[in-house]
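idk why but the lab printer keeps eating my pages so im just putting this in chat instead. protein + 1,3-dihydroxyacetonephosphate:
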Amino acid sequence: MKKLAAGNWKMNGTAASLAEVAALAQAHPAPACEVLLCPPATLIAQMAYHAKGTPVKVGAQDCHANASGAHTGDISAEQVKDAGAGHVILGHSERRTDHKETDAQVAAKTLAAWRAGLVAIVCVGETEAERDSGATLDVIGRQLAGSVPEGATSATLVIAYEPVWAIGTGRTPTLAEIAEVHHFLRERLTARLGADAAGVRLLYGGSVKPSNATEIFAVANVDGALVGGASLKAADFGAIVAALSAAA
Ligand code: 13P
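predcted complex ->
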């Protein structure tokens, strides 16, 4: 399995930010892991152009479940693919919160991603209140069961565990807490997919930065990271790519 360093730019970046792609590729021309950047939709096509011939792959942050139609402001998986993306992040907690996305909607979008030939990066994660009440594994299990449709394979599915309270806060779970959730995810996926579950990349996300990447990548069943803030600058994201390459 090739590990995956994925950057989620969220609603950040303009054309000027595309210089980070060349800087990243120049500093890490042959990483031992996969490297993915998911810019806002406005930059997908341009980033795909800039990333051509480099190890940097390009993804989207969302897609609609339908292939086309009257859905003002939305973008289909087919359009994402056409713009040059190969991956799409689905069910990020910010979309679950801001747009009230449900597990069923995330599952429908995941099917759309597969229909278009995209790799789906499905996000799960508990809130702070859920962790404090001891409900973490229940929540993760429910999200995983509801958000990942039948037909997943290690080639088409990546799971990102992102505790909501760790996103953009500088706080992270203990390594033991990360290990517990990732072990649980692997078990649940094995029950559904059998031996192929061993090849599904399980990413940790939430305040990953150069200073904590190495210790997080040493945790069992952590196969990479989904990085927000620290993916915006090539220097920071490059350091995380280097840490994952060293762990690969
Ligand atoms: P931060 O790395 O900024 O905490 O964001 C994590 C995230 O939400 C990535 O999808």
